[in-house]
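Format notes (please read before filing issues)

Several people have asked whether sequences and structure tokens are stored in separate files. They are not. Every record keeps both together, in the order shown below: the sequence lines, then the token lines. Line labels are part of the format and must not be stripped during preprocessing.
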Amino acid sequence: MSRKRILLFKILAIFFPVIVFILLECGLRLFGYGLDLGLFVDDPNHPGYLVMNQHTSKKYFAQQQNATIGNYESFRKQKAAGTFRIFVLGESTTIGYPYMHNGSFHRWLQYRLTHTFPEKEFEIINLSLTAVNSYTVLDFANQIIDYQPDAVMVYTGHNEYYGAMGVGSTSFAGWNPALIRFTIKTRNLRIIQFATNIFAKLKSSASTEKIDLRENLMKRMVSDQKIALNSEKFKQGISQFEANMTDLCKVFSNKNIPLFISTLVSNEKDLKPFISDPGNNSASANYQYQLGIESFKQNKFPEAEKYFVKAKELDLLRFRAPAAMNKILRGLSAKYPEVKLVDAEKVFRENSAHGMLGNETLLEHVHPNLFGYALLSDAFYQSLKNEKLISSDWKNEISFVELRNQMPITPVDSLKAVYEMMMLKEGWPFNEPMPAEIPHEKTIEEQLAGGLSVKQISWEGALSELLKVYLKENNLKGALQINEAFTLEFPLDPTFFMQAGMLSAGLNQNEKSIFYLKKAFAIQDNFKTAQTLFITLLKEDRPEEAVVYLNYAATHNESNFNMTELQNLVSEIISLKQRYQSDSSNINLSNQIALNYLKFANAKAAEKYINKTLQKDPANANALLLREKIKTI
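Then the structure lines:
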């Protein structure tokens, strides 16, 4: 054979496996084998929108039965001008377990930001997954940089050992971060999915141990229940966290995208260590915890805190992030200018008795209660405010107290979390017996929460049933709370915004009514919304805003009412108000504004200007006559 032929055969020999690999990959895709495991897919319910791929988690779980599903939160493929887009990354705490939906800190944040900046559009997309760790968070980070985030928020670390591909998990794939990242990337390939599925079936048929899906996910994910402090495996977990979080910071810093990373919070005071070395010595978590209890009883609080923290650090079952992780997070925020530290640990300690983390803010080991989730949202909110990313003007800021009073968390949400916690703690590693039920006639809220906690009914279904009951009972406050909850869950559906606006008006909460009606109109303009809006705005003496919706209603008139006279009156009121602003001592102007308002029975706005007149001239005959007219309306 000639040299050229020999060379050709060598080249073919080298590339033959590659060609076969490519042909197999193309063939599998052609015949529809496997899944698209990318982070986003088109939203089938909203053209032009993307949503988190419900299969994407399968990239990270060796045992596909353990793969978890994230939120269904749509956002535009092409970000609209003026929209502030935030992606949220993390694990079960970040997704809001056990409340989920509006219990999550990102929904508290969404509610507060939209009410602080009512004219601005916010897209806050929570991409968190239960039972994952920093490998998943980093992989998601690499995928979201092309979707124009204005900020990214991260709360992760508690699952570092037992989350998917963690060093102590059942899906452990090696301790080398680079190798694991490569493995994650290859799982997009259909041929790798095919090989993985074949291997899993062979392993399953050969093994006598079967995955018991009745066991909770915590137990199914744990392989090594004893990881001692500063052991080799402990250090591997710290190293993988530092490597992944460092690269995460680089990803966003290189693109000048603000990254908000939070320190981690876990129960120290009110949770006995899960697994402890035996004996009464400095290496025993139980011994240290008992010393903390005794010090606490003696009011030696600084000493008690040290013991509680030490007990948490010595706990062999690594379900709570060690202090080394918070140290890493603080160091990264100091190293990278685009990385902003959100010190949740500091905030939680400030809101806990004697600065010790316990049941005041946490439900069990790591998941906050509603107060805790509100605190976590406040920590991110204040960081956004300090960085002045959205605006330098936060004049409409609602306080933390107002947030807690207004946030639409329904009784079903709260009760569902209580029931779910009881079921969780009944299993491993808590092993706490279910408390005996006190016989009583269950309320509708208890019935629906019970069905929701055992997945007999969906969250939307439960709240829809409760809404029917509240409307039948004429419980407008409860009905409003549910509709507000639905606006957060379904921000593209104008129906819930419209209903929230109408119910707010029925409760004389006109500012809230205007807020929701404007949102409804922005999503889908129509006569009814415009009509309700201009009427409510005129009641609040805001004719300059009302005229836009009045003119729309006049153009799309669906009633027999002639709006020309009303349009003229409103134009005259606007003109009179402009004159009154520069001549506020002119009582003839204030009387004329009041009279014009009374011409279409707007008593509330009319009384405002009558009072202005009477403050300057208590005996003014025209103002007193107008006040008498109000009584007849």
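For reference, the curators noted about this record: The first strand starts at residue 40 and ends at 42. The radius of gyration is 30 Å.
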